[in-house]
Amino acid sequence: MSQDEARFPMVPTLTATLGLKGERPVIGTRDCKDVVHTFASANVLTGQVTSRLYGSLTRTRRRDGLSKMKRLQVAFCHHLLDVSRAYPAETYPEVLLVIDNAPWHRGRPVDWALNRCSQLKLYRLPPYSPQLQPIERLWRSLRRRATHNQLFPELARLQQALRSGLGYFRSRPQAVLQLLGSSWSPTDSHEP
Predict the structure, then answer these.
(1) CB contact at 8 A, 9 and 38
(2) Which of 20, 7, 27, 19 has the alpha carbon at shortest distance from 148?
(3) How far apart are CA 142 and CA 148, in angstroms?
(4) Fold (CATH) for 2-15+31-175
(5) 36 neighbors 162 (Cβ within 8 angstroms)
(6) In 33-57, which positions are buried (b, 16+ CB within 10 angstroms) versus exposed (e)?
(7) In what order do the strands lie in the sheet with 120-124?
(8) Considering only CA atoms, which of 123, 42, 46 is closest in space to residue 83?
(9) Which of 8, 50, 115, 192 has its CA 20 to 30 A from that of 148?
C-alpha cells in the first residue's frame, strides 16, 4: 500500500477554469490559516483507498498545548488503526505500507499503534523521493475534484468536499489504479 498525507488549506487553490466569454471568473479569498490534513493509503493491487481527515483550527492549536508534530503523530496512529480495520490480520497476515520520512511517522505513539496492529509493516522511502510514492498522483486529482477555485466558508465545508472527493475515488478503484500507474487488474488473479 502507498501511504501519504496532504494539507488542504482554507485559502482556495486557483487553476484555469471555464467562464463566460468576456467575463473574468471571480474566486474569493480570506486570511485564514486553518487546514485539513488528509491521511490516505491506496492499495496498489486493488485500488481500495483508506483515508482519515484531521481538521486543524488555528485558535485550537494554540490552546491545547500540543505541538504540530505530536498532533500529526496521533492522527497518523489513528490512520494506522483505520488501515488495520480495513485489512484485518486474520485475512491479511502482512500489510506493507510504503511511507515517506515525515517526522510524525516515528515515535512512541506510532510504535504503540504498530504493536497493536501486528499485520502492518512500514517501509520507509529514501529522503526527498516523492516520485517513488504512487499516492502523490491521487492528491492532484483530489484537489482538482474537491478544492480548486472554491472558497469554503468554514472548515466543515472543506472537510465535506474532501470526503465527497475521497468517496468518488473509493467507489472507483479502477480510476485509482489508473492514477497510481498500476498495471495489475483484478481479473489477472483471484488473490488481492
Answers:
(1) no
(2) 27
(3) 9
(4) Nucleotidyltransferase; domain 5 (3.30.420)
(5) yes
(6) ebbbbbbbbbbbbbbbbbbbbbbbe
(7) 49-56, 35-42, 2-9, 95-99, 120-124
(8) 42
(9) 50
Grid coordinates 467507489 are at which residue? 171
Phi, psi angle pair for 52, to nearest 5°: -150, 135
What gap in Å lies between CA 91 and CA 79, rounded to an integer?
19
Task: Output the furthest CA–CA distance in the chain (Å, rounded).
Answer: 61
Query: What are the respective helix, strand and coil percentages of the chain, to the nearest 5?
Result: 40, 20, 40
Distance CA 55, CA 43 (A): 24
Instruction: Say how far apart CA 68 and CA 73 lie, in whole Å.
Output: 9
Asked whether 4 and 44 are in contact (CB, 8 A), the reply is no
Q: How far apart, in whole angstroms, are the C-alpha atoms of residue 185 and residue 174? A: 8
Q: Which pTM value belongs to this model?
A: 0.83
Q: Cα–Cα distance between 39 and 41 in angstroms, integer?
A: 7
